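Residues pack. One example:


***
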Amino acid sequence: MAEDVKPTRKNLMEIEDRIELSERGHDTLEQKRDGLIMEFMDILDQAQDVRSKLEDDYESAQDTINKARAMEGDVAVRGAAAALQEHPEITTQSKNIMGVVVPQIESSKVRKSLDERGYGLLGSSARIDEAADDYEELIESIILAAEVETAMKKMLTEIETTKRRVNALEFTLLPTLRENQEFIEQKLEEQEREEIFRLKKIKAKKEEKEAEEEAARDPEEVLEPGTVNADD
């Protein structure tokens, strides 16, 4: 509340400094918010493409695995899957987007040649190979989707945090500081007017006193030097 602020020039200067600092912070946060939104929109477009591809890859993988089961039998498909010796490896790094640290996921050993799959040429068939190809494609899409979705969530969280800070400055802190500034300025102006009025009263009383003293003096004392008295 403005009434809780002492109306002193020192407090006024401190509030003016806080207002200036808060306005700069508000402008900086607004720029950050707008930049984050632009980056988020780019990631959102990418996420939509990744989701679409992920759905297509999933449907394709399901289709080829069902065909392989129908043509080769469920036992042959499970045997080919069990023969896999090397599994995909995932490594994570991080990158900075306007102050937001987002993951960067890298994968290796996802795509494999026929001899790297472990089941051998004789233990396989074209249907199983097609299913393996499609599932490797699906895994890569899942990894990319995980990276993009995580980045999008982190960006969205940072946008919401920045928006709350902007709103707090714009609708809470700055109005309060300006209200306090106006309150102190009004009080100081009142004090200044009161001081001027007091000084004028003091001056008027002084002049009145001097006039009374002048009037109370002996008429002979107020004659100018060299003036001849009428009785002489």
Observations:
- DSSP finds three helices and two strands in the chain.
